[in-house]
Amino acid sequence: MKRETLQVINEARREGRAVVRAVDLVSGEERLIDPYDDTSPLGHAAAGAARADRSAAVEVEAREWFLEVYNPPLDLVIVGAVHIAQPLAPMAALAGYHVRIIDPRTAFATEDRFPGASLSHDWPDDALAKTPLGRRSALVALTHDPKIDDPALSAALGSSCFYVGALGSKKTHANRLERLKEHGFSDAALARIRGPIGLPIGARSPAEIAISVLAEMTRELRAQPDQGQTAKPA
Fold it and tell me: Which residues contact 179 (CB under 8 A, 6 or more apart)?
């Protein structure tokens, strides 16, 4: 690896940006690719590798490349230290997420209830202004309280996070969308919110709902269109 390549990769890490190092397996040519902005065939292959969190050898336009993925950590923001959040936080941590709990209600967001999670008692808009959501972030709003959930959802819709979900019935979600529409969000923007949250697996208990939420997050993170490249295991 060239020194200048390592410098760029380290800078991307410090800034929380994804980068993919592509190496031609025949010529040794080296390229650094932004997997979110590069629309070339090799860029599409890099996007797939980054989305899968998997370095791999690929064939693109009759050339063999090895794609080495450097992703920032996965980030889950749970707004509302409620019962569903308690199983969701450790499940997400096991899946590789750094978990943040945001709830201004100090009696709910405690270390006893959420061991190992990062806790914030700020209001969501303040907390997310301090540590913004990125492309590897997911946000779930669980409180049912518009004063807490709506500012969090507004921040999420203004970000590049890959998943936005909100707890509540279809009626609750319809009312939520009307409120957010009054704040200027378009139908296309509001369609990003998964509500009712989670895959429809018939979940009933907090743990089952947490499973459905994490499953839906995983689908959003990993699903990608077929870009036509031929991948080979690393």
Answer: 146, 150
